[in-house]
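Same chain as my last thread, 130 residues:
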Amino acid sequence: MHSIPFYPHDDDRLIMKKKDKEEVGNWLEHLEFISREIEYLMPLESRTEGNDLLSRELYSLRRENTLLMAALCRYENSMVNALECDSVDCDIYYLNNHEKHRGNYIGHLRKYENLKERVFARLLRGNRAS
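reply #2:
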């Protein structure tokens, strides 16, 4: 993870744009980690017997993770346009857009954490039965 320094001579708008860009970069790094983690969870979960619902959910979540990463990459590339804003309406549009992406990211994290917890619980139950 890299950090973009804030300088005292930067105006508040520029500082906020830098902060937002860094935040999106952090989200993307975390989603890449989740992607790798899902690749570990999938074969572990497949070792358990019974309903393959969790397996299907892992595949679905892996796809959602990829789609969210693509959306955030597109958003990150479009962030340069926010620097060209010259009105409050434009700033509000980009602020709302950023908050929408933050909400999508947080919602995805919650969904992933819930699924991961269920996979671990199933693995632990399966190990006790052995």
